[in-house]
Structure formats: C-alpha cells, structure tokens
Design brief:
heterodimer; A: Rossmann fold; 11 helices; 29% strand; B: 420 residues; two-stranded antiparallel ribbon; 6 strands; binds adenosine-5'-triphosphate; binds magnesium ion
Chain lengths: 297, 420
C-alpha cells in the first residue's frame, strides 16, 4: 500500500496552489496542517481525481491513478470541505444512494449503512431530511458516507469543522479505529485534532510541504523555543511587536507572556516544553511588526 | 437501474418540481376545459338561435353532422348544396330581429358545416381565403359542382404562376412542379363529417406541448446541475461509479422522466377530448377541413394526431437533451432553464410580431415549429441537392439527430467534469 505523489503541481489562472510536492503515504494517519489558502483542499482534490494536476503525478502502487480511473476511485473515501447534500433525501436515503454510487451491492449496502449510522451516532436521525440537519450532524453524515465502502484511502478535508467538543473526541477515536491498514489523510487548522491521532504531520504553506514527520520530529525541527516571561503592562505591546507571542495571561502586576524565540528574550525568561501548537505558530504565525522572515524557514 | 431511480427521486422530491408538475396538470386541464367551454371550443346553436357549449352541445353537433358524413362525391355535394339553398330560401319569421333570424338559419345549417366549408374553399375563386369567401357556398350553382376537386389544383396553379401573388416568387420551378404533383395526387373524393374531436384534440395538444417544454426544462434542469448547486459534486465525482455510470444514469433518468411525463399528460389530454367529443372523423383527410384545405400532407385526422404526438415527443426530447447539455456544461440551473425557453418562446413571439413573409424562412427551422408542422401555416419548401423537401422532413431529421448528438456530448462532458 503506497500512495506516492511526485512533483505534483496545480496552477490556477494567477496562483500556484500546489507547488511541486513530493511525498509518499503508507498506511497510517496523516495530519495536514496549514493556514487558509495553503493548498490543502487543492491537493486533496488531486488525490481524489477531482482535479487534474498541471504537472506531476499521483501513483498508487506503481500505477497512475488517473489511468486507473474507477479502479482507483473504488479505494477512495472522501469528505470534502465544502460539503453539500441532497436536501430532500433522508439520511438513510442519502447513504443508500452513495452506497449505490460506490458500487456496493444492495444486500451489503443496507447493513453497511446501519453500521455507519451507528458508528457516527446518527441512527436516531436516519429518517430526517438532510436539509433539516444541523451543520455538525451533516458533517457526521459526511463522515459516514466517506467510510461506507471501507476505503483504502480516506481523505477528510476539515472533518472536525462544526463538531462540538464531545463529537470531536468521538471523531478522534473513530479515526484511531479506522487507522489500521489504510491511509487516512485529514486536513485541519486545529492542532489538537491531529496532535494525538495523526502518526505523521505535514505542515503545508504556500502550496509546499514545509516540514513533515511525527509530532516529536516536528517539534524538534522547530528553531524556536518557548519562553515564559513576566512583563509589566507597558512592555506588553513592545513584546507583541518584537516576538511571536502565543499566549497572554493577564496578571495584577502586568502579564505573563508565552514567547516563541530561538534565544531567551529576556534574562528572567523560563524555558518550557514546546507544544505542536507553538510550532504551528512559529511556522505560520505573523508578528504584528518586526523584522522580515526571522525565524521563518 | 437503482441509480436511475435515485435520480428520478431527486427530481420528484423537490418541492419546486412538484409544483411544476402540478402546473403542467393544470395547463393540461385548462386546455381540456377550453375545448368544451372556451370561445374556440365546440358549440351548438339551437333552434332558437342561442349558443350552447359543453358536452351536450358537442353531442348535438355530432349527431347532426353524422347524417351528412361519408364520401363527398357528386351526389352528396348536390344534395348538400340543394339543402343549403333550401334553408336560405325558407321564409323568415318577421317577428324576430335580423341577428336571431340569421342565427336560426345557421342553426339549421350546422349539420352541413363540414361540406359548406369545403364549398366555400373550393369556389372562393383563388388560393387564399378572402373577405367574402365565407358566403360563397350558397351561391354555387349545381353545374359548377363537377369542378369541386379540380378547383383546389387550379387555384394552386394560379397562385404559383400569377406574377402578383406571393407564391410566384417564393418557389422555384421544381418546387412549383412538386406542389402541383402533390395536389394532383391527393386522393379524392374526400371522406367528410364531424371532425371536431380530432381538431380540438390537436389544438389542445398543441398548447400543452408548446408550453409544456418550459416546464419540462425546469423539471429536468436539476438532473445535471443540482450536484453543483447543492455542492454534492465532490462526493459524487469521487465515487467509483459517479462518472461513467452516474452520467449514464442521469441521462437515462432525464430520458425516462420526459418520456413518462410526456406520454401520460398528452395521452390523457387526447383521450379526454376524444372521449367527450367523439372519435368520429378519424378517417377524414385533413384537407377536408378549413385549416388544412391547402395542406401538402396527405394524412387523415387519426394520422395527424399520431404524427403530432410523435413530433411533440421529439421536441420534448430535444429540449430535455438541450437542458441537460447546458446544465452539464454550465453547472447552472438557471442558465439551463432559460436557454430552451428562449429558444422556444422568442421565435414564437417574433413570428406573431414580425412581418410573416420575412420571418418565414428564418424561423421555420426553429424548434418551436416542431409543434406546428401541421398547424395552419404558410407553405414553404426547401430544395436540397435538387430534391424538394418539406420543412417537416428537415425538422424531424434535424431535431432527432441533434437530440441524439446532445445526449452523447452531454455524457462526455459530464463524466470528465473537474471540480474546482
Ligand atoms: N478554483 C480556483 N480558482 C482559482 N484559484 C483557486 C481555486 N481554488 C483554490 N484557489 C487558490 O489556490 C490556493 C489554495 O487554495 P486551497 O483551497 O487549496 O487552500 P486551503 O489550504 O484548502 O485553504 P482553507 O484552509 O481555507 O480551506 C488559494 O490561494 C486559492 O485562492
Ligand atoms: Mg481547504
């Protein structure tokens, strides 16, 4: 099981959304992290054959996926970011329909649909019309349709958007369950979504893979360290302009700042363990002012 | 097949589509109603000179005209003419006003109307209907009757070769010869009689087919465009069968839906009207009535109805295919609804407004004409590679093949769609 992308590029009229990306996926969970416009969705659309690359290729076990056509799509499960449904279908109808589109035999489809409804906690809503579902419930139905055909490649574009905290946890557990013997690629802005569940994390920026690796590797790759400094009120603004500040805690005497910097920003700063969230900020965060590109890769 | 059913379900579950279907039924119902009670529907004038409408009126008219139906040979012509003259010369009741007097006369002549109309047409003295032609019948002399069928051909010849007539410049010599041959080969004597059922069924179908195209365009527009409108496209096209089989299922669904809706509505309208007004006259040639006297199509009323329904079906399929193609290409419901409506309605309106002679050659091959191949239209012919062909022939070939072509293109376009 190997999904390989080579020199994958997509140009839109003016922008290059994905820029010569090379990567190989094996079974496991991959978390794709990036800011808005990083090219996550565009990349996923190419991986799902919805969009033809400008250049480069997507190879599944040695075969070009665009040549494989439906033999490749048979292996796919996809939850799009901008996810729409048939408003007049009930949840059950919808899943049965997608099962048909996925070539699942009617006899099997029925039990598969029941299973997925159960898995996503949608059983009690199965008779409800799709247009009457809340955003979160719709996304759950979306997750259910993605895994209906037990896909080898499961691609989820911001699957946790709109889910409440308990549903988020449930989703994380679901991903861990599903991880065995398949490739799961999920994109998100929310670091905690991938922190625990994803074996491999990919930081994407401006259409390129910036850093890849396990959570620890990513943290280790980060040139910034985390410092906790207590500063008086009048210095807070100055710190914001000079350093990347990931957190501010207001104290009676001033503020406790969490600062990202390769060096200790001030003598009394205390170093803390770097979290993935800090790394994210370090790579993607913009300072309010200050010098160009310092600390950026 | 399951996929086809889901596609149809997507159409049927849409509230707006349910409304559109309802409108279609109302439209069909209204054309049926007009036949029985409308100003251009059937009516019967009773002995007192009063006008009656509805089923009973239709029955009276039918019974009266039945006695004067049959083969329109010299014997029947003479008998009918004598009866007309007898009614005209009968003394009027002086206590009644003039309008009522003439209505009473009309009441007595109703049984003869099919033959009387043909006498007007044959002896009006020219190809085109003129002011005063309506009063010709009673002035015909029995000695003229042997020329009854000949006159039709004679008028055509005059129309084609008289330098002042519209026919003179419109046709080439080959086309003129074609027309004359066509007129000469029409089988005579005609069968005549009560044909109101078929004529009314024709005009009701005409409106249902024409305005129905807009509704069917609306109903079908979602089949290909809704995936995009509902943002269901990404999932749809990333499934195993979404592209190839899915596109085929959509086309099949559109085809089946149009077919079922068309035939159920149109057969219902036709059967309703024929059952209420009667099937009489199905074997009469269309030339045996006012609207078709000059027609070049050698068919009976029964054949007319069949052909009309078949042509209407081709038109609906053409519209469906066009809507689906535009929807697949543009991804937009509104564009795909508008295109065929504009294509049907604008030429139809132009034709009513613009000078007919000028609009004629341009507009004749537009799809709206598919509904009116046999309607009372001015004669026009085309010469292709030395062969004279009727617009009807071209329209049938053109729209059937375009329909098939568009189905094929739509399939190709849709299955290769990219999602941006
Ligand atoms: N259809 C399109 N036409 C033109 N440009 C596009 C199109 N789709 C995406 N882009 C551009 O490509 C770049 C990447 O977009 P993409 O949607 O892949 O980002 P993303 O990482 O998914 O962002 P988000 O987190 O907001 O979902 C952006 O600059 C965007 O403006
Ligand atoms: Mg995105």
């Amino acid at each position: 099981m190997e999904l390989k992308i080579t020199d994958l590029t997509k140009d839109f009229r003016k922008t290059r959304a994905v820029n010569r990306v090379n990567y190989t996926f094996h079974s496991g969970v991959y978390g794709l992290l990036g800011v808005n416009g990083a090219g996550k969705t565009t990349l996923m659309r190419m991986l799902t054959t919805l969009l033809n690359p400008t250049s480069g290729a997507v190879i599944w076990d040695g075969q070009d996926v665009f040549q494989m056509d439906k033999d490749y799509r048979r292996l796919l499960g996809y939850l799009p970011q901008d996810f729409g449904v048939y408003p007049d279908f009930t949840v059950q109808d919808y899943l049965m329909y997608i099962a048909t589109l996925k070539g699942i035999k009617p006899a099997v489809a029925k039990t598969r649909v029941e299973e997925m409804l159960h898995l996503t906690g949608m059983t009690q809503f199965k008779g409800k019309k799709m247009k009457a579902l809340s955003g979160g419930m719709k996304r759950r139905a979306g997750i259910a349709q993605a895994v209906l055909n037990d896909p080898k490649i499961l691609i989820l574009d911001e699957p946790t958007a709109g889910l409440d905290p308990s549903e988020r946890i449930r989703f994380r557990n679901l991903i861990s369950e599903l991880a065995a013997d398949r490739i799961v690629l999920l994109s998100t802005h929310i670091v905690s979504d991938v922190e625990s569940a994803a074996g491999q994390i990919i930081l994407m920026k401006d259409g390129e893979f910036l850093v890849t690796g396990t959570s620890d590797e990513i943290i280790a790759s980060c040139p910034d360290r985390v410092w906790i400094c207590k500063v008086p009120k009048e210095q807070v603004l100055y710190c914001h302009q000079t350093y990347r500040v990931s957190n501010v805690k207001t104290l009676s005497s001033g503020a406790e700042l969490r600062i990202l910097s390769p060096e200790a920003p001030m003598s009394d700063a205390v170093q803390e363990e770097t979290s993935l969230e800090d790394v994210f900020l370090s790579y993607f965060g913009e300072k309010s002012g200050g010098e160009d590109g310092n600390g950026m890769v | 097949m399951a996929m086809v059913w889901y596609e149809i379900k997507k159409i049927l579950l849409r509230p707006s589509c349910q409304i559109a279907l309802l409108i279609l039924l109302v439209l069909a119902g209204q054309s049926c109603y007009r036949v029985l009670y409308g100003s251009e529907g059937v009516s019967w004038t009773n002995e007192l000179g009063q006008t009656e409408t509805g089923c009973a009126a239709a029955r009276k008219l039918r019974n009266a005209q039945r006695e004067w139906s049959g083969t329109l040979d010299q014997e029947l012509l003479e008998k009918a003419l004598a009866e007309l003259k007898r009614i005209d010369s009968a003394p009027d009741d002086p206590s009644l006003d003039e309008v009522t007097q003439s209505n009473i006369k009309f009441s007595q002549k109703q049984k003869l109307m099919p033959i009387r109309t043909l006498l007007n047409l044959s002896f009006k003295g020219g190809y085109e209907w003129q002011y005063g032609s309506y009063f010709v019948a009673e002035k015909v002399e029995p000695e003229q009757l042997p020329h009854f069928y000949e006159n039709r051909i004679q008028h055509l010849k005059e129309w084609l070769y008289d330098e002042d007539s519209t026919g003179y410049t419109r046709f080439s010599e080959t086309e003129k010869q074609y027309l004359i041959r066509n007129y000469e080969t029409l089988e005579t004597p005609f069968q005549v009689g009560y044909t109101a059922g078929w004529e009314q069924a024709f005009s009701a179908s005409y409106y249902t087919i024409l305005y129905g195209t807009i509704l069917i365009a609306f109903l079908i527009s979602g089949v290909f465009a809704n995936e995009f409108r509902w943002k269901a496209d990404s999932v749809y096209f990333s499934t195993e069968l979404g592209r190839k089989e899915g596109s085929a299922a959509k086309l099949t669904a559109g085809f089946l839906f149009t077919t079922v809706v068309y035939w159920s509505v149109l057969l219902a309208v036709n059967l309703f009207i024929l059952i209420f007004l009667g099937f009489d006259g199905g074997n009469c040639p269309v030339q045996a009535t006012f609207h078709y006297w000059n027609s070049i199509h050698h068919i009976t009323f029964f054949q007319l109805s069949l052909l009309q329904l078949a042509d209407g079906y081709v038109l609906w399929m053409f519209i469906s295919a066009l809507v689906m193609l535009v929807a697949a290409a543009s991804r937009s419901v509104s564009i795909s609804v508008c295109v065929p409506s504009v294509l049907i309605m604008v030429p139809d309106m132009l034709e009513r407004k613009v000078d007919f002679e000028k609009a004629l050659s341009l507009l004749t091959l537009f799809p709206h004409r598919m509904t009116s191949i046999y309607a009372n239209r001015t004669l026009i012919l085309y010469t292709i590679l030395g062969n004279v062909v009727t617009p009807a022939f071209i329209q049938r070939v053109l729209f059937s093949s375009l329909t098939i072509l568009m189905f094929a293109v739509c399939y190709r376009v849709y299955r290769r769609k990219q999602i941006r």
